[in-house]
Amino acid sequence: MNKKNIDGHLPPRCQLLFTYPYLGFVNDHIAKILVCWLVALSHISLVSAQTANPPPPLKIDEAVELALANYPAIKTARAQADAAKANIELAQTTYLPRLDLLYQENRATRNNVFGALLPQSIIPSISGPVLSSTSWESTFGSAAGTLFSWEPFDFGVRKAGVNVARAITNQANANINVSELDVAASVADAFMALATNEQAVRAAEANILRAQTFADSVHVLVNNQLRAGSEAARADAELSVAKTQLLRAHQLSEISRASLAEALGIPGVAVSIVSDPLLEFPTNTSMELPKFDSHPLAIAQKSAIEVVQAREHVLARSYVPRFNLQGSVSGRGTGALTDGSFEGGWHGLLPNTPNYGIGMTVTFPGFDIFSIRARRHIEAGNEAVENARYEQTIEALKGQYARAQALIDGALQIARETPSALAAAQQAERLTLERYKYGLATVTDVADAQRLLAQAEIDDRVARLNIWRAMLLAAKVHGDLKPFLQSVKH
To answer: What is the value of pTM for the model shown?
Structure first.
């Protein structure tokens, strides 16, 4: 077999590859086969990478569990709760005593004067007698020491600070429950939206089959010169409309699929669902009056109020004296003598003169009363804001409960009516086809009957889904989706 024949048996991808100049040196058949084999492997790997194995078909409870494990908002809320919990440990460290260590070496003059010097951080203090003369001669100096400080009692200031940290932690934990409820409800709603659009796709597919069958029968009649050619054109037009409706239904279905994948925390993955239980009539549609004050949103808002109240308690304990039990051990060294002379050499490098002391220090910030009073006014305003938000939350939940009741009642009435509407539409379509066969109906009559049947099928398929969707809203108002998911499962 010559080179031309071998090139002719190469796949188009490989033939294109050999047109590049840098592969012009490849002339033997084995090299070409190896190159094509590598190209095929790369193509297979690319396709495999692009079509990663999607998760198995998900039930609604499995979708909720997957979202609770993957969705970033829940991970964020849990991380914030962990950080808030660490603040409790930080606040509890204020009960511990304080131990400060110091060591210093210097080279300085020893000139000193009588007189007061107000506290500041610029001019270094000098100890020793005031001499009659000054000198620019310097010597070594050193100092080392430890200071132990502890507040034996504080009138509840530190406990109030710990309570603030605990209140913030409780708020963060409450926000986790809110995030989990929001994510679970969003996933369940996205699941039902996909189920609804998939039912619309199935109804559109059934409508295409009917339109195709009718168009074929019309063409047979036209070809046999039993009907006018315009009827075939009208039947083809109705078939095209049905195909367009199917394409739109597919588009909405894929958009819903992408939205569900995003809600699951796995965006870009082609997910599939098992929606058969949602097509059944619910066994129990009763709706109890929820306890609004135990809803996660209400609990989270209560925790926000408790945080403000805890901060107010800290301010109430702040205008008190501070007691510090202190103990010190220190040593100093200097190369200067009391008569103004210097020992010289390395004298003063080591702190060889020791001292110790123990005592109690009491401090009271008298004028802090004004700033504390202003801060208490601020926190009182913040508490009023959080209380108003709590009332707003309760009112919003009551409004959602009323809407959920209306949705359930309306969905139940519609679901009881759609089977009759579907049966009537099926009978009308069948009778219209029979009348068309005998020339008693037109193509327009058949098209109208088929469109009516398609809409009735969609309404009947979606009616029971809408009941479950209304029950989902009711479950969210109750603040717990577990009973709803159990009812779907069983």
So the answer is: 0.77
